[in-house]
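pinging the channel bc i need a second pair of eyes. not urgent but kinda urgent?? the chain im working w is below, pasted from the shared doc
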Amino acid sequence: MAIAKWVWKETAEVLGVVGIIAGIVFLGFELRQNNQLLVEEARYNNLSERIRGNELMLANPELNKLLNFPPDDPSEEELALRATLIRKTLLIWQWEYQLAEAGVYSWASSDSALINTWREVFRKTQYIDAWESEKYQFDPAFIDWMEENVVNER
């Protein structure tokens, strides 16, 4: 009778340990799934922000003109609006850079299509002037990366 109690006790302990291990494995799968969802949410937010920026330009062609074909003698209002649009774009770029640094994206190599687009933007617009006056507001690592991979690669 004592041996039967001991067998049941040992069996219960083994089942308990197996249950704990199964719970830890399940938690690992749940964390992995949650991380994947967070990555997808970050990508969706990035896409939404880019779409919103494009919709803003489509809804108001004057903004696009102001950004890409600035007037020879812009008013103070036009200069302020243009600076705000450029700052918004640079903030989005910094956010994308930080996501890449965190491992969410893998585009941050200097030969990616997105980085080539950024270089093109700097080449065709007056972003460089805004960058020089606004860059102190950004993360130092982003500033260094931008200088090395976008600004000086024009």
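so The mean pLDDT is 80. and The chain has six helices and no strands. — does that match what u expected or am i reading it wrong
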